[in-house]
Amino acid sequence: MSKICVVGTGYVGLVTGTCLADLGNTVICLDVDAEKIARLKCGELPIYEPGLEELVKRNYEAGRLIFTTNYAEAVPEAEFAFIAVGTPQGEDGSADLKYVEMAAESIAKVLKGHTIIINKSTVPIGTGDWVASILERSLNDSSVEATFEVVSNPEFLREGSAVFDFMNPDRIVLGSTKRAAAEMVSSLYSALKSPIIITDLRTAEMIKYASNAILATRISFINEIAQICDTLGADVKVVAEGMGYDKRIGPQFLQAGIGYGGSCFPKDVKALAHMAATHNCHPQLLLAVMDINQDARRLFVQKIERKLGSVTGRRIAVWGLAFKPNTDDMREAPALDIITALVRKGAEVIVYDPVAMKNARMLLPGAVEFCNDPYTAVTEAEAVLLLTEWNEFKQVNFQKVKKLMHRLNLFDGRNLYDPEEMRRFGFNYEAIGRPDEELQDSSSFNSFRALAGILGSGPLEMSRVAKR
Ligand code: UDX
């Protein structure tokens, strides 16, 4: 079993440190935020992540998980030092590396013997080499006798299932200039049955960006298809299902909605595009992915306005604020843009989320009203918007909702509900890329005619139109 230090107790650092402790290692988690560390020592977690609290408690009590603010306590004895600090988005879209730099410098000051420094933070291509140069410089400037190797080991943890993802990885990626160093790190994961890819530093760093970019691309792709479905009268949910059975395509990340948010996709796609542009590449696909993602939010507001007319003075309820279910994370949540737009247009917005309300209060306009349950939120409302697909909203008592609402408009931003069922309840139900049957019939007929017009009214097109 190894002695490990993890710098940074955010999502990635805390999950990584805790899970490595659970695998039997001794892990010291370090953060410069003294209040955070004090709270962690009392078993209070800075984030909501299913299963993590119990795991922290168990390993802390067993003495395998230690919390500190002191580099001199954490680093010298460690065989492995993970850097898992934040890389916030700089003003121009590039990743801001000041915390990585601070961590590398602080580690260098107290390094002892031989240590493998592992980059877990998502960092621009070339950062591994840069971290190595910071460490080298610091060591040269001091009298410290120590050696090190740098390994890139990107994380692929999803918020809300981060512990499961850590323990059941699809793959582990390790990049280094020294293969032996990467192999040493791979030994930390030997209990997890997973393919391990060992490569160079830059390739490992790129695997992380490219992985997030393709997932974001799939989401924007299906959102674009949803827009086309809306106008041509097809059902995007069935389209995605039909596509997903093709093994070359697969069903994942094809849920149309109000766009991706969170701490990773928006920041990483932007950073990759920025990296490409600064090296004279034209990242046209990435730019389109980002545009479509912003459009998804804008088009949702337009859909509401089309149905309600002006939203000024209208009471609109919102179910779900977090960027996705099972997290209290509000970073880049589509709900923020949608609610802000509605408030600016004069709507009276009442919101409810099972866990993200505390974080949302700091980010939403002052005029927004917060409620403690989904029913209070919809009372006297003229519309309800489903913005995060929490399980709780799947089990809503719609008979009760019906009695409480002033008008029965339901805008489903995540395609959570069955359109027919909602219409049976009496709702004017609008989702993403799922037009109602009437529209489906008439619009597909009209669109087909338009298409036939575009293609030229040859015998094939006309005979197909005539058959309908
Ligand atoms: C993501 C990656 O999945 C993870 O591997 C990486 O390390 C960090 O970023 P996360 O941000 O936690 O994880 O969430 P994820 O489940 O990937 O969802 C991201 C966003 O995409 C959410 O806003 C979600 O609602 C949206 N999404 C996802 C869709 O709109 N449609 C989909 O089909 C899937």
UniProtKB/TrEMBL annotation:
<feature type="binding site">
    <location>
        <position position="31"/>
    </location>
    <ligand>
        <name>NAD(+)</name>
    </ligand>
</feature>
<dbReference type="InterPro" id="IPR036291">
    <property type="entry name" value="NAD(P)-bd_dom_sf"/>
</dbReference>
<feature type="binding site">
    <location>
        <position position="324"/>
    </location>
    <ligand>
        <name>substrate</name>
    </ligand>
</feature>
<dbReference type="Pfam" id="PF03720">
    <property type="entry name" value="UDPG_MGDP_dh_C"/>
</dbReference>
<feature type="binding site">
    <location>
        <position position="87"/>
    </location>
    <ligand>
        <name>NAD(+)</name>
    </ligand>
</feature>
<dbReference type="Pfam" id="PF03721">
    <property type="entry name" value="UDPG_MGDP_dh_N"/>
</dbReference>
<dbReference type="GO" id="GO:0051287">
    <property type="term" value="F:NAD binding"/>
</dbReference>
<feature type="binding site">
    <location>
        <position position="36"/>
    </location>
    <ligand>
        <name>NAD(+)</name>
    </ligand>
</feature>
<comment type="pathway">
    <text>Nucleotide-sugar biosynthesis; UDP-alpha-D-glucuronate biosynthesis; UDP-alpha-D-glucuronate from UDP-alpha-D-glucose: step 1/1.</text>
</comment>
<dbReference type="InterPro" id="IPR014027">
    <property type="entry name" value="UDP-Glc/GDP-Man_DH_C"/>
</dbReference>
<feature type="binding site">
    <location>
        <position position="267"/>
    </location>
    <ligand>
        <name>NAD(+)</name>
    </ligand>
</feature>
<keyword id="KW-0560">Oxidoreductase</keyword>
<feature type="active site" description="Nucleophile">
    <location>
        <position position="264"/>
    </location>
</feature>
<dbReference type="InterPro" id="IPR028357">
    <property type="entry name" value="UDPglc_DH_bac"/>
</dbReference>
<feature type="binding site">
    <location>
        <begin position="156"/>
        <end position="159"/>
    </location>
    <ligand>
        <name>substrate</name>
    </ligand>
</feature>
<dbReference type="InterPro" id="IPR017476">
    <property type="entry name" value="UDP-Glc/GDP-Man"/>
</dbReference>
<dbReference type="InterPro" id="IPR001732">
    <property type="entry name" value="UDP-Glc/GDP-Man_DH_N"/>
</dbReference>
<dbReference type="InterPro" id="IPR014026">
    <property type="entry name" value="UDP-Glc/GDP-Man_DH_dimer"/>
</dbReference>
<dbReference type="GO" id="GO:0000271">
    <property type="term" value="P:polysaccharide biosynthetic process"/>
</dbReference>
<feature type="binding site">
    <location>
        <position position="159"/>
    </location>
    <ligand>
        <name>NAD(+)</name>
    </ligand>
</feature>
<feature type="binding site">
    <location>
        <begin position="253"/>
        <end position="257"/>
    </location>
    <ligand>
        <name>substrate</name>
    </ligand>
</feature>
<keyword id="KW-0520">NAD</keyword>
<dbReference type="InterPro" id="IPR008927">
    <property type="entry name" value="6-PGluconate_DH-like_C_sf"/>
</dbReference>
<feature type="binding site">
    <location>
        <position position="208"/>
    </location>
    <ligand>
        <name>substrate</name>
    </ligand>
</feature>
<comment type="similarity">
    <text>Belongs to the UDP-glucose/GDP-mannose dehydrogenase family.</text>
</comment>
<feature type="domain" description="UDP-glucose/GDP-mannose dehydrogenase C-terminal">
    <location>
        <begin position="317"/>
        <end position="419"/>
    </location>
</feature>
<feature type="binding site">
    <location>
        <position position="261"/>
    </location>
    <ligand>
        <name>substrate</name>
    </ligand>
</feature>
<feature type="binding site">
    <location>
        <position position="331"/>
    </location>
    <ligand>
        <name>NAD(+)</name>
    </ligand>
</feature>
<dbReference type="InterPro" id="IPR036220">
    <property type="entry name" value="UDP-Glc/GDP-Man_DH_C_sf"/>
</dbReference>
<dbReference type="Pfam" id="PF00984">
    <property type="entry name" value="UDPG_MGDP_dh"/>
</dbReference>
<feature type="binding site">
    <location>
        <position position="122"/>
    </location>
    <ligand>
        <name>NAD(+)</name>
    </ligand>
</feature>
<protein>
    <recommendedName>
        <fullName>UDP-glucose 6-dehydrogenase</fullName>
        <ecNumber>1.1.1.22</ecNumber>
    </recommendedName>
</protein>
<dbReference type="GO" id="GO:0003979">
    <property type="term" value="F:UDP-glucose 6-dehydrogenase activity"/>
</dbReference>
